[in-house]
Amino acid sequence: MSRLDERASGVFVIAVTPFTDDGSLDLTSTDSMVDFYLEKGATGLTVLGMMGEAPKLTTDESAQFVKRVMARVGPQFPVVVGVSAPGFASMKELSSRVMDLGASGVMVAPPSTLRTDDQLFHYFTGAAETLGDTPWVLQDFPLATTVQMSASAILRIVEAVPSCVMLKHEDWPGLAKIDALRAAEKKGARRISILTGNGGMFLPEEMHRGADGAMTGFAYPEMMSQIVAAHHASEFERAQDLFDAYLPLARYEQQPGLGLAVRKYTLAKRGAIATPMLRRPGPTLSAGDIADIDRLTARLARRLKELD
Amino acid sequence: MSRLDERASGVFVIAVTPFTDDGSLDLTSTDSMVDFYLEKGATGLTVLGMMGEAPKLTTDESAQFVKRVMARVGPQFPVVVGVSAPGFASMKELSSRVMDLGASGVMVAPPSTLRTDDQLFHYFTGAAETLGDTPWVLQDFPLATTVQMSASAILRIVEAVPSCVMLKHEDWPGLAKIDALRAAEKKGARRISILTGNGGMFLPEEMHRGADGAMTGFAYPEMMSQIVAAHHASEFERAQDLFDAYLPLARYEQQPGLGLAVRKYTLAKRGAIATPMLRRPGPTLSAGDIADIDRLTARLARRLKELD
Amino acid sequence: MSRLDERASGVFVIAVTPFTDDGSLDLTSTDSMVDFYLEKGATGLTVLGMMGEAPKLTTDESAQFVKRVMARVGPQFPVVVGVSAPGFASMKELSSRVMDLGASGVMVAPPSTLRTDDQLFHYFTGAAETLGDTPWVLQDFPLATTVQMSASAILRIVEAVPSCVMLKHEDWPGLAKIDALRAAEKKGARRISILTGNGGMFLPEEMHRGADGAMTGFAYPEMMSQIVAAHHASEFERAQDLFDAYLPLARYEQQPGLGLAVRKYTLAKRGAIATPMLRRPGPTLSAGDIADIDRLTARLARRLKELD
Amino acid sequence: MSRLDERASGVFVIAVTPFTDDGSLDLTSTDSMVDFYLEKGATGLTVLGMMGEAPKLTTDESAQFVKRVMARVGPQFPVVVGVSAPGFASMKELSSRVMDLGASGVMVAPPSTLRTDDQLFHYFTGAAETLGDTPWVLQDFPLATTVQMSASAILRIVEAVPSCVMLKHEDWPGLAKIDALRAAEKKGARRISILTGNGGMFLPEEMHRGADGAMTGFAYPEMMSQIVAAHHASEFERAQDLFDAYLPLARYEQQPGLGLAVRKYTLAKRGAIATPMLRRPGPTLSAGDIADIDRLTARLARRLKELD
Where does the chain bind pyruvate (chains A, B, C, D) (predicted)? Predict the structure, then answer.
């Protein structure tokens, strides 16, 4: 088992949770999905996040799914598990369970009621105490949680809590936050890993500002892995060319609420999972949406050929 | 087992969930709390609501707690169980489990993402389909959920879904909504029971507008049962005198976020539960808060003597 | 002209803005309203606040109204004017105008988009720079603004900005905030005046925690002035007895959205203003609401006699 | 003067309001900006919208700015003016003033407190009554207003209010809403014009679903006019090629809060306005942001050459 630490980098794909058409967990698709993500360049996986429909799973299903993923990726591959919960007791229970199964770390988002810096500090130090020495990722996703965390609020948590090793960065706009965190490190603040979200919609700029990679679930994970690789090879124009090719589809997948349905449709179309089923209640694609996606993926294929 | 229907009235106390000082379920206090609520005039109980710290319980704990409550109240006493959940699968699972244990019905609150009338209609018709023929209570609590439901949106759901038998009314302000619902019934809309919340802070006025009673958790349930009784006996000034006596304390308990700690402190002080413990994360009373409550309860005792 | 400073205390009544039945400014009622507030014990007035329908006035009307109020109260009586505005240019313009007219200070609420401590600090230091040496009141009213300010965020602003002399305290719950601010002063933080809002619903407790008085608009300002006086005379039970008598009506007036209509109805009934007109769009009282208020005011009169 | 009606189509550019470096209105830049927009294919202009910093202008400045714009565009060119205001009296005053100056219509956004369909209906029928026979645009921009309007809520307003002639569509996701509105028209609902926002980020798809054009302020208005033209010529792939070229920059400009600073920087760089000044309080671009924009505009120029 690898333990997540502040040197983590690359692409941690936010995995969907596959269901069969009757709504039960699809473990066969879990295997094929894991294979797909690895093949497309994932250096880690994040499961049971918001886009993994985690709140719609029972505790037993969550454990069953994590177990299957762990078995497929093998013991050395880092897997982060979302353990956000209304109570610390449940957070501890799920966290212990998945760490025992071999997870590398867990991810915690703030409850939507938090507002002030002091409330954030109080909540996350409490969560960290609950999690013991389990390394954890601070999830900053204001569009979904309605909670805004300034760079200084994050730095205060990072300073007080050594087990916080990574920021899942998904503020929007968020580039100034990466600047501020990296500037603070230069002045002596403890370094943490910063992996970015937002469907990859700002990945080239985020890498320039000091991100270590991406943690997001766009149905073409190769976009993220290729951009990160090109960035590290200082091929910045190449990185941006790739980005531009994928952007029309990435933008379409990034529609709030509807996005997961777009993502699962695309993953099913690419053969990663058997069907695009979401658990209820959830959004449904219209014929027009499907025509849009089909058109955009066809254009993407042509554009990638031009770039070769 | 009694099945909840649209004739339900009186006082359904929103029960707290008692914990021991180490944070585990306190089943002994569960018994004493149930006895206390019944002795103070409860005609029904509602468990696993927002004020029951339901989201902090595991599924097993939820079932264990409901079972204990059911055993104590006996088969004929109506118990409503909160089953709000992010996914319909979990809602169905918990609902089936508690109905098998003998619950009279369940309660469903809207997820905080819903906004438009159509979204509400879509969500609740989906939930109702999931719940099958289980009678259910529509929970309208904008201050907590951020979801606002107009009278017409409620009526549309009531008309389409026969299994919706009650409104847990907790809008603020909310008197006009009771007016509108009862006016619609006079014009032919299906009747539902309306039990009101907000800690009883508007109970006399709500009864005048046509409420059937209260569903709230103020630590002096006798306030609600006496006001409802006085109202039915047309002793309106008596009802208001009682209300006025309890109001200073009810107001103090109604502070958002802090209120449950006030409530549990008072229940412990009254002997209903062993300790005022809340599961983490949760608010804590300061010495000043405790002094306030002690002062207010002492004044209440004196005032009630004057009224006798 | 008196300048507002950190020693301000007593009752600053939040004045309504009277309109005639055709919706124009009612300057005759402005005079009678001012007389009424002074007669009931106001030690200051706050105009053009949220409950003064300020955003519904044109700039010229605002100046006209402030001028009339200033003329009536005379040069030594402190008047605070709400100058919250989306842009600093408008804030400066209105502020200069009313200070020239003889106002004692201005009041600024945070725009609803602010979330983090840093955003608050940035906004209020910018506002203070705009206001120059005009003394100003920091308005903390999360229920209306959706902005939450921790005690430490407030202290940071107070420390950086000497012209911030008062907190209009209206958080809910908010007692712990007064505790924290007064505790910080004991450790050396600069003192500011704290006047509390929330319609007086927690005034006895707020005085115990260290408030200097009230700044709110309950239609019976004598409640606030008598409680503050009783508190200063250490007649705490007397203060609470008075409070309890007014509470049923204060609670009714405190209904969000509807409350201003209740307040203006009551003020008109008491003869302070000619008609209860609100500018559109605004709420309207139903016959049931009016019956409630009439019943509650009649009960209040009886209860006050009993207390005499 | 042309009156806005339900046949309006093309590109109504949301104009910025230019300021000089000392923060005063820049009327010279107003002229050059208008010329720029017209040259780039605008078929209409919308001024004093949210992105026009309207709330930061005084009433006199607003009128002065509108007058200057009207003089520059001439009497036949349609100009829509944002008149959203907390009170109907102010809305009427501004509306009358700008219609007298020759505006074609006005635009109204819902106040952020509205939630239910009934509240929306009540508000907009009241606003329409206030506006008399002035044609108006219903602004649907949930990300900024926090108000969500379903297609059925919009249709109800459209049916009741003949003076509502256009939807400024800016929901996200929003394609299904266009589908629903156009489907309703096929069943007999009154037609309205639909111009879309969101910085043009979904313009090709929106045109497919039945939009009549765009009303947004992306600093390259030629993107919108060319896409609309290509769409009408049934050159769909050409439309999408153009879109894809501009998308990386459009995405960057679409960052909430920061976007207007990006837009004004780009407009200044293109010579449309003299300086990128925003009125305070407002966001500021960092050196990194400026480097990003410069890089993206350089890439855009190259990409457009390739497409020629």
Answer: 215
